[in-house]
Amino acid sequence: MEQMMMSTCINIIVAAASFLILWQIYRSRRNRTWAAPHGCTNWPVVGMLPSLICHASDFHDRYLTATLRRHGGTVELKGPWFSGMDSIVTSDPANVRHIQSGNFGNYPKGPVMKEVFEPFGDGIFTVDFESWVLQRKKLHLLIKNNRYKLLMEKATHAKLEYGMFQILDHLAENGDESDLQDIFQRFTFDAICIIVMGLDPRSLNIDFHDAPLAKAFDDIGKGIFRRHVIPKIAWKLQKWLRMGTEKQLSIAMQRFDDFLYSFISSRRKQIIAKRMDDEVEETVDDDLLTAHIKGEIMDKNDGVLVLTEDKFLRDMVLNLLGAGRSTIASTLVWLFWSLTNNPHVESKILAELNSNPPTLEKIHGDENVLINHPYLINLWKLIIIFLMIIMIYRP
């Protein structure tokens, strides 16, 4: 009896799936939309996912570019049912200006994105309207400061000389292979942690050991990605039951929060202690977190010290780490991949670098090569390649 019921259920499911497929074929042929104009067939249940997977190897540089060109710069992509992966892709400058500047207030991120990006809290990635404007102004004041540029140059230089170059030399001497994307991910994570928090987690190491902070950050990113691709009801249920990928995400968030709150509290106490001795002043080596806390102390009204909540600083730090890590790493990977496939361009870049050697300056008491902003702006060929990579392979 049970076997008959099971067989009946399977037959019903197969019949229903067959009906949906045949109905889609009939409707598409009737409306002449079976082969979607942009080359993606919108299948029942799975949407356009099969077509996107088939073109995964050339998705950015050929498939998506040709699709956007065929449709005037804007297309709608349909993901599997209930996955929340439906999206509109545009490369039309007019549309970008309309959304990002002209009518930005009409396009809020909304509660759905805030829910998916729960680990980022109330940071600039998830908030809208007045809160977004306020955070944007604060970050601009910090980032546009010349001290930030100097800190970024020093942090990048230090990680290159004492991290990246040593690892590449070690790999070359031993003839070992390694994942370049993993190396860039570690490099950018260390650099952005130094810039944002003044802390080097040392995830970029010869043994490729995972730093606890970097591991927790990776797990958070994986958890957010899974929330994008599985139905909302599925990950909501996992979260409620504390199981599966949501359990991993919860553990990663707890580890990251425990570290960040402790770090922020310690840093604030150090700065307030210096304030008691009238030693609080902005320096070149101040990271963004320190600069923000010092700014609060130096801008107190009527002698009353009003401190930002640790939650706000936690969200700010996590959002800055998210903005500066994978985006830069993926751009660097696409850059070197493109240069490898275009040796004539690589030779021109090398010729430009050889004809414009960097200057030598004293850094940490030693005479080292200093790659700074005034030097880089003269490398116009390299700048053009970077801009092309960013336009073609969006980070």
UniProtKB/TrEMBL annotation:
Signal peptide: none annotated. InterPro entries: Cyt_P450, Cyt_P450_sf. Its cofactor is heme. The chain crosses the membrane at residues 6-26, 317-337, 375-393. Keywords: Heme, Iron, Membrane, Metal-binding, Monooxygenase, Oxidoreductase, Transmembrane, Transmembrane helix. GO terms for molecular function: heme binding; iron ion binding; monooxygenase activity; oxidoreductase activity, acting on paired donors, with incorporation or reduction of molecular oxygen. It comes from the Eukaryota. PANTHER family: CYTOCHROME P450. Belongs to the cytochrome P450 family. This is Cytochrome P450.
